[in-house]
Amino acid sequence: MAKDSNGKDRELKKRIESDTYMKCAVRECYASFKNIIKFVVQGNREKEVIEIIFAEVDKHIDTGDLIQEYKMSALPSLYDHFVKLIKYLLDNKEEDRDHVVILFQDMLEVVTRDIMMEDYNISSLVDSSHGGTWHGGMIPLEQQYQLFASSGAIRFPIEPVTEAWKEKIKRIYLLLTTKESAMDVPSNLEARRRISFFSNSLFMDMPMAPKVRNMLSFSVLTPYYTEEVLFSLRDLETPNEDGVSILFYLQKIFPDEWNNFLERVKCLSEEELKESDELEEELRLWASYRGQTLSRTVRGMMYYRKALELQAFLDMAMHEDLMEGYKAVELNSENNSRGERSLWAQCQAVADMKFTYVVSCQQYGIHKRSGDPRAQDILRLMTRYPSLRVAYIDEVEEPVKDKSKKGNQKVYYSVLVKVPKSTDHSTLAQNLDQVIYRIRLPGPAIIGEGKPENQNHAIIFSRGEGLQTIDMNQDNYMEEALKMRNLLQEFLTKHDGVRHPSILGLREHIFTGSVSSLAWFMSNQETSFVTIGQRLLANPLRVRFHYGHPDVFDRLFHLTRGGVSKASKVINLSEDIFAGFNSTLREGNVTHHEYIQVGLDTVLTFFRMMSCYFTTVGFYFSTLITVLTVYIFLYGRLYLVLSGLEQGLSTQKGIRDNTPLQIALASQSFVQIGFLMALPMLMEIGLERGSRTALSEFVLMQLQLAPVFFTFSLGTKTHYYGRTLLHGGAKYRSTGRGFVVFHAKFADNYRLYSRSHFVKGLEMMLLLVVYQIFGSAYRGVLAYLLITISMWFMVGTWLFAPFLFNPSGFEWQKIVDDWTDWNKWINNIGGIGVPAEKSWESWWEEEQEHLRYSGKRGIVVEILLALRFFIYQYGLVYHLTITEKTKNFLVYGVSWLVIFLILFVMKTVSVGRRRFSASFQLMFRLIKGLIFMTFIAIIVILITLAHMTIQDIIVCILAFMPTGWGMLLIAQACKPVVHRAGFWGSVRTLARGYEIVMGLLLFTPVAFLAWFPFVSEFQTRMLFNQAFSRGLQISRILGGHRKDRSSRNKE
Question: Which residues form the Callose synthase helical domain (predicted)?
Answer without folding.
Answer: 1-178
